Amino acid sequence: MPPKTPLIRLWDPELSNREILFIGLISVHWASMEHEIFIQTLSTFDSEAFDLAKLPKEMNNIQFTGVLALWKQRVVDKTRGRRAKTLLCQYERITQLKTYRDALIHGMWHWSADDLGSIKTTRVKKREVITTRFSADGLEDFAKKIAEVNFCIRFPGGLTDLARARMQQGGGISRRAIAMFTGAPVDSEGFPTGNPTGRKSIPEQ
Length: 205
Fold this sequence. Notes:
By secondary structure, the protein is mainly α. 50% of the residues lie in helices and 9% in strands. The chain is built from 6 helices and 3 strands.
């Protein structure tokens, strides 16, 4: 007889696919934003100072608020003209959005029978119990806001900056296009699910 497959029990968070989609997008966009702000801030230091021992303690990247404050000081405040206004606007938006994001990521999820169309998170901060309500539409709107911030901090001059960056990078090809050209296995949306036949995967660290 074949060996029995062990029974695996999985906890169900009772989130809809749409809710899960936007929670995932929010996490991805926020992480990308933090990374971009860190890299922009790091680039303002001399290359000799890239030794972490010589960088300000905020650049240990333990708390995003510390890096954000340095970004404001060393990037936003040093920019001029229309780009400066755009970056300052993004700084203000990030500080406003962070409370919502922290509630989403760090809170304890739950729902109630009298409000089935929404989900809530509860967390304790400085001895205060904070409950925040989320709807699928609200999550979608929040994901779009962070995506817009992500674009603006990279290209504060708008399409002009985007075009300049594309020219400097040279030609490019999308992930799905590479999968199509190389014969890699793909899912129903055309995204690769593995490497082309005969190519080894890079082991995860």
